Amino acid sequence: MQVSVEATSGLERQMTITVPAERIDNDVATRVQDTARRVRIDGFRPGKVPVKIVQKRYGAGIRQEVLGEVVQQSFYEAAQQEKLQPAGGPNIEFKKDKAGEDFEFTATFEVYPEITLADFAAAEIKKLNASVTDADLEKMIDTLRKQQAEWALVERAAEDGDRVKIDFEGFIDGEAFDGGKGEGMDLVLGSNTMIPGFETGLVGAVAGDDKELNVTFPADYQSENLQGKVALFKVKVQNVSASSLPELNEEFFVKFGLEGKTLEEFQVEVRNNMERELKQALKMKLKEQLFGKLIKLNAIDVPSPLVDSEIDNLRKQAVQQFGGGNANLDPNMLPKELFEEQAKRRVAIGLLVQEVIKANELKVDEDRVRAMVEEQAQTYQEPQQVIDWYYSNKEMLNQIQSLAMEDQVVEQLLASATVEEVEVSYEDAIKPAQPEAEVAEEAAAE
């Protein structure tokens, strides 16, 4: 077998493989003879069909089967011989395919990038620290009460915190615009649901009022055609409702699955949940920051097959999250471009993380895995049953092991980086991170 390799562009390689005619012809002849022993053809006894007849009737198909197997096997052998790591299946093109002559084909494919990790000491990391204060706890409990609030119509002017039911229509330069109309919408004043000036303009309104609100869309408004535009909204106030908050009693606690609890026990449970949420948020922000720096310090090309596979995963996740339970929604209907940058980032992180693991010879810490399983189990009524389930389910245990290894990579990177401890509030700590935007801003600033 003869092999030649050409680097066509970036990670793409084109491998030309020549297989001796003898190997192909011998395999074809052997399979034709085997077929002659098994095939049934009218006029001939089983096992007595002449090879020539089998060759004439089935030879072409048999040769294609042989070539398919030879291509697969020889491609694998050639990749090993040339020390190449294909990142996906090859695109095969037959160049010479004639009985009695050497068989030649080309395989075009992408390889994994060669990675030499940069010194991570160059990474400057801000490690956020936060805690749950009594004020944070009080605010959270107040939020929980507001979620369970009961609304009742009132015959007075609307105040901040009241709910108004409204019909509205927006105009720019005297023309109505798409998306600027609503009917029977409930709006809580002070919720900042609408653009600045809209809700404050309804404070003092009473049922039956017609209001005209002059507002300006923010410069960074989600619809580009409305950014910075001055608009007039004509609003009809149908009614005004005020809320009454539930008492902090057992009836309220039961709504959160806490039967027979006192106020102090409820507060402890809420604080514990907040601390778990805070711990996870800080962990995720640190991880995203570290991985963002890892990408910044190690610019690598990513193989297209891996990106395409990740795009498929992101499409499926989007359908599950936003598809409204529609099992017939085809993920491939979602434009590839929506997920391409995120997919590239995920693939790059995955490749770099694997290189960190390899370079530092990291092994999964089983004690850490056990601790993570036990932590998960503590949120259930029968923790031991959950622990036993994890350890009897290989797939679920593998997921925990992957998370444990990811944590070990984070610790390895953090130990190598220049770290500044930064104290932030609970609210700032739990705000969702936007890693793609942050990475883009850092790149633009350079």
Automatic annotation (TrEMBL):
The residue stretches assigned to a coiled coil in this entry are none
Keyword terms: Cell cycle, Cell division, Chaperone, Cytoplasm, Isomerase, Rotamase
Q: Name one GO molecular function term.
A: protein folding chaperone
**What are its E.C. numbers?**
5.2.1.8
Assigned protein family:
Belongs to the FKBP-type PPIase family. Tig subfamily.
What's in the domain note? Consists of 3 domains; the N-terminus binds the ribosome, the middle domain has PPIase activity, while the C-terminus has intrinsic chaperone activity on its own.
Q: Which function does this protein serve?
A: Involved in protein export. Acts as a chaperone by maintaining the newly synthesized protein in an open conformation. Functions as a peptidyl-prolyl cis-trans isomerase.
The molecule here is called Trigger factor
- Native organism: Marinobacterium aestuarii
